[in-house]
UniProtKB/TrEMBL annotation:
Coiled-coil segments on the chain, per record: none
SUPFAM superfamilies the record matches: 4Fe-4S ferredoxins, NagB/RpiA/CoA transferase-like
GO BP terms: lactate metabolic process
Residues covered by region (Disordered): 451-487
Entries under InterPro entries matching the protein: 4Fe4S_Fe-S-bd, 4Fe4S_Fe_S_CS, FTHF_cligase-like_sf, Helical_ferredxn, LUD_dom, LutB/LldF, LutB_C, NagB/RpiA_transferase-like
Keywords annotated in UniProt: 4Fe-4S, Electron transport, Iron, Iron-sulfur, Metal-binding, Repeat, Transport
Entry annotated with the keyword tRNA-binding: no
Ranges of residues in domain LUD: 71-299
Name assigned to this protein: Lactate utilization protein
Compositionally biased spans, kind Basic and acidic residues: 472-487
Domain 4Fe-4S ferredoxin-type: 315-385
GO MF terms, alphabetically ordered: 4 iron, 4 sulfur cluster binding; metal ion binding
Species the sequence originates in: Nocardioides caeni
Amino acid sequence: MPKFPVAAREALGDAQLRHNLAHATGTIRGKRLRLIDEVNASTPEGTAWEELRLAGAAVKERALLSLGDQLEQLEANLVANGATVHWARDAAEANAIVARVAKAHDVDEVVKVKSMVTQEIDLNEALEAEGIAAWETDLAELIVQLGGDLPSHILVPAIHRNRAEIRDIFLRRMGETGRPAPADLTDDPAILAGAAREHLREKFLRARMAVSGANFAIADTGTLVVVESEGNGRMCLTLPDVLVSVVGIEKVVPTWTELDPLLRLLPRSSTGERMNPYTSTWTGVTPGDGPQEVHVVLLDNGRTRALADETGRQALRCIRCSACLNVCPVYERTGGHAYGSVYPGPIGAILNPLLKGVGHDEQVDSLPYASSLCGACFEACPVRIDIPSVLVDQRAQVVDARRGGRPSGEELAMRAGAAALSDARRLALGERFAGVGIRLARRLPGLPGLRGWTSARDLPDPPTESFRAWWKRTDGGRRPDPTGEQR
């Protein structure tokens, strides 16, 4: 992927994309705000939502500050309940574990619950390389998969597609992987959902293994939790004989009681609903009910790196609600693909550099700058992640990581500014020529280095006299100014 400014410039030229994004994010924002007003109306002070945010942030913070202990307790309870626990340091280890389980059961296809973490590790591609087909069963993820596309939103991966585009994808691609779409398929949402349902049902009934993530993992009982809106997750979590759940280590919650505020925050912040239509919980293996072999892969993949960052570790509180995307003016105009990662928007702009580290990849290093720092993301975040502060801190880390190499134009300009401002004589000399430079820039706005500024801004008229010259001429204001001007 190119750096964010390059990818964003291309996305800005897609009028249909901007229309799709504005419509979808605006709709979700409106639903969310109505529910927040409803929560606030439940108390005379009108502060119930903020109190809920504080409670959710405290739960996640407590879990992170005692993460080692919580994970050990989670593992012990999972094992006690019949699950097999695997630890994966990175994507390669996690993918290898899932493939090994599939091969042990002679499985050549798996059905999947919508999972950000399996997209993060490119599990589908890794399984395909092993001869195992991974079928996405979430409607939006199915659209993305059939279209040979990439997700562009955490909650609504196909937010960049409209109904007509989805109809065309279903007609062209469904028959290649299973039951084809009806020849008379229309772009009515209910008809499209019906075609997806028929296409997926044969996969649900045939699959012997499923792969999921987890929204939360409760340490004191060894319970995994998935919330979703379509019922596909429930099908994947109950029908197959074998279930493999890939879970980021930051998803741990200490107790069931502490899960409560998170389950109230997540649906209101993500889908604009009081609760999700489907909340599935499972605790290991239950004889005769559901999968009879359960594997849990606890994944690091850079999370301990993020945990060690005192400013950035708060990003691990994220409950993947996507509220920050829906209020971000940058995301609304560029979409998720411009971020070059499965985690787009404001949270992706901080989470990707935290997980991968800075100073190694120009695309990753460009993400902390993919923001106007307006602060809307912090106001929307249900667990109070101060994204603007983390962005500023990561910008400093990017600059520090790139010191010592070939200096950029910005760095050279800063060096010149530091040299001028650190010496009164150099500053005085620079002031003499500042007016000349401004006049030249106004006459030649297309000069290299100026084009990025002057294409969107007007340069002010240079002053006829510098403050230093005025001070000298009037003896610091003690002599009358013959021009009569107030300075």
